[in-house]
Amino acid sequence: MNALIAGWAAGYAMAIATTFALVFLLTRVSRTGWLDRFFAHEAPFALVSVPISIGATLGWTMIGLILGAFWLVGGFESKPGALGSPSWQFTLVAGAMALLPLPPLVIFFRRYWWLWTTMSILFAGLFGWFMPLLAKR
Question: pTM for the complete prediction?
Answer without folding.
Answer: 0.85
